[in-house]
Write a structure and sequence with these properties.
The chain is mainly β. It has one helix at 2-6, and strands at residues 15-16, 22-26, 31-38, 43-51. Strand 3 (31-38) and strand 4 form a beta hairpin. The chain is globular.
Length: 53
């Protein structure tokens, strides 16, 4: 998550969704984290964690 917070739009650490402010990060076989990017206040807010296994 530290890498995501540094650059929340980096295509190497996250994927776009239908909403440009909502992104998803893949943690390999561990699962996914969906987060909301609030550019105006420089905040990344986790909205969902999907743990695999």
């Amino acid at each position: 998550m530290a890498d995501v917070c540094e650059n929340p739009y980096d295509p190497l650490t996250s994927m776009a969704t239908d909403d440009p402010q909502v992104r998803r990060a893949d943690f390999g076989d561990r699962g996914f984290v969906t987060y909301l990017v609030l550019d105006s206040v420089e905040i990344v807010r986790v909205v969902d964690i999907l743990r695999a296994g």
